[in-house]
Specification:
single chain, 5 strands, alpha+beta
Length: about 150
């Protein structure tokens, strides 16, 4: 029961972190058969292969372990393209809260799941030129997730 509750808690946290609303179509998800350490390494390599820089990897399970859950397999990987960050900061300040981009990675039994927000949910009709970046991010996230799926 504790494991099921833990998974429910983690999924709720991810939904709160990554979406402005609760629509499932605003999430991009992939499951890989790789164990967590292998998937974590593969994810970071794949992000770099797509010309992004990883700004940090953050543990998100510290509070959960203090509550009695035994895990160390929940992280958020923050990444961005430095040139894009500069352009977005100067021209599209409404997107600043969303960069660097984030992928949550967590273990679920023998599999590893990756979750990210669909960048297009941040599209704003007042800033249509920003959509080219959102579309690029979505395309790159799908490529990254597809590579993770294929590496089973």
């Amino acid at each position: 029961m504790k494991n099921h509750s833990f998974t429910t808690i983690m999924f709720s946290i991810f939904l709160a972190l990554f979406t402005a609303s609760s629509y499932a179509e605003e999430l991009l998800m992939v499951r890989t058969k790789q164990n967590f350490p292998e998937a974590m390494l593969k994810l970071q390599d794949t992000i770099r292969d797509h010309h992004y820089s990883i700004s940090r990897v953050q543990r998100i399970d510290i509070g959960l372990t203090k509550s009695g859950y035994e895990t160390d397999k929940y992280r958020i990987v923050f990444f961005a393209d430095k040139k894009e960050v500069s352009v977005i900061t100067n021209n599209y300040p409404h997107l600043i809260p969303h960069i660097p981009w984030k992928i949550a990675i967590f273990a679920e039994q023998q599999d590893t799941l990756l979750v990210s927000a669909d960048p297009m949910q941040f599209s704003d009709k007042n800033h249509p030129a920003a959509d080219k970046y959102l579309l690029k991010w979505k395309k790159d996230l799908k490529k990254i997730f597809n590579e993770m799926r294929k590496s089973n």
